[in-house]
Amino acid sequence: MSNVIKYILIAYLIFIGGAMMAQAYEVTQVRDGATIRGKVTFSGTPPGPLQFEVEKNPEVCGGQRSLVKVEVQNELLKGAVVILEGVESGKPFAKQEFQGDAPGKGTFQYAEGEKLDLQVHTKNCNFGPFTGVLTPDEAVRFNNHDSIKHTLHTFVSLDSGGSILRTLHNRDIRPDGAFDRTFGSDKLKESRVVRITCNRHDFMQNWLYVVKNPYFAISDVHGHFMIEDIPPGHYIMRAWHPVLGLQERDVRLMPNTAFVANFAFFRIREKAMTSRKLSFQSEEAAKKEVSSSLD
Fold this sequence. Notes:
By secondary structure, this protein is mostly beta strands. It has helices at residues 3-23, 58-61, 283-294, and strands at residues 26-27, 34-43, 50-53, 64-67, 71-73, 76-78, 81-85, 89-90, 96-99, 107-110, 119-122, 131-134, 139-144, 150-157, 165-173, 178-182, 193-198, 205-210, 216-218, 224-230, 233-241, 245-253, 258-268, 271-274, 279-282.
């Protein structure tokens, strides 16, 4: 290799490395931060839970298991991931823990600080809740607290509906064992969606959305979410569910403001659809609207 080619290659690598560093999220103090709160709704009849006869390790997993992919109560949707894209600096990641549905006892744990530091704690044949988030180029710790082996199989989704998948990892987790796996940004160029399964237990299924900053929330059992301490600015706001799809819109946040943002999903003829009509208004305007409706 000639010296000229070597210099060109070195310059290219420095450029790429600098570009990646420039895109990294930076924790800084937030002044005059804004807040977004809202709810995620679902209209129509949600798909029923999937039922499974457990063939392997029923002494640990139970003889039968079910999987609820769309969890709705009174038209309020649980498990929608709400994200703000384009925030390059701001608050640190928050310490959070989300637990899977019973009889599963798995959890997704997120650390506090400059990194998300996702830890997946598999328990009672369950990785954790149906939806969650992860960050690229950061090790994810997979822990197995069961007395049986699980076979972790992760995929990246090559389409928005998750029907075209490409394997990322495929490895056994021994009983009471653990290991780290990284989801590299080079593997996530074509998608922001990752699927987690167990090859030995087909009811163990989870979906993760790739985030690049701590400005995300997951709607609770009442469909509510809140994102706080947001630096004023212009961003893209997204609401995602692995079955129901993705919604997005531009938002402009002014200093020291509170906004209400509601997302509506619906289902027609067994096909999930997303509403094009999104509600986004200041909290003051929302209160006036509620007040006028009571008069």
